[in-house]
Amino acid sequence: MNGMQSLWERMSAVSPAPAPWIVQVTAVVAVILVLEPHAWRITRNVVTIVHEGAHLVVALLFGRTLKGVRLHSDTSGVAISSGKPTGIGVVLMTFAGYVGPAVLGLGAAWVLGTQHAVAVLWIGVVALAAMLILVRNLYGLFSLTVVGALLFGLVWFGTQDQQVAAAYLITLFMLVAAPRPVLELQRQRARGAAPESDADQLARLTHVPGIVWVGLYLLVTLSCLALGGWWILRPVGG
pTM for this structure? Predict the structure, then answer.
């Protein structure tokens, strides 16, 4: 009982508001991690984890049976579930991937506003542990283990200042990163290189053109970036 109580206290700990310079620095670092090509090759793996995780969460919410997840070294991935091949559940599950990082970032921004920065890190630890049960390839196992170990190290051994800075960096990274895969998707579609993309699957499911779904992805991700960024950065300017 004492162990569980101690764990809960760690997870629900109230964090002090960071100094403005910490928020500003993490924002700059988040932008660099997305725009710098060499960094993006690595950090895009994290976006893929969240993308596939979003598919799995929505699939579970609509009663589908989760079969597994694969993550590949080219930063692609696939979430596998079984159930009805059509219907609103399949549409939302398919739509969820590209907006997942943005929605997660927006939710994390809200949590940061409640001064529970460490909870952002714990949510990541729990989610990655759940995905480890479903992973079906070695690279996916490696990716999830590395990211999970880093997060667990922060929540268990990091100082409060380190945890707060990491939570802000992760949140801002998710918000800033989310639109880039959407733009990359459309460039691939324009070359005819992504006939099985989520947008094209949605087009076949709904008879709404794929470009419309890409537009919706972009609208959601940019809206989350604007709102989440405002929530986080407004105190800095205020």
Answer: 0.94
